[in-house]
Give the backbone structure.
Amino acid sequence: MPDDALGPTDPVKQERKAETSTLRRVVLAVVAILVVFLVWEGVTSVVAYTDDAYVRSDLVAFSPQITGHVIAVHVRDNQTVHKGDLLISIDPVPFQLAVEARKAALAAAIAQAQADRDAASGAQNGLTEAIAARELADVDQRRAASLAADEFASRRRKGSG
């Protein structure tokens, strides 16, 4: 029978095989520890536990989009709530006052705009009146100049006037 059939008889081969076997065991132990650690982390991140009991938590944090005083809470402790359920009521008075103040400011701005339109209309009327007065003065000046050129205009006396 050959020597290989009975197993390696060379001490170098036996030593290499022992080193490879030891390295495999160390790697396998490290991988096993890593797998156990990952499983443990996965389980403990989902379920909170104590020595006496297991607890599941279905809490959801929320925050309102506005600030104000809470005047009523519409849920009880440990009540299951669904999307759209009314949780709390916030005091509407400050918001109503703000709306009324904005409405008053809008009304004041509308009144000011109307007053400005009236003032602009008055200024336009004044401009039209001034243009008409200037045109009348031009006509009077041309008439007076024409009469003076033809010597039909009355002459003023010296010292009167």
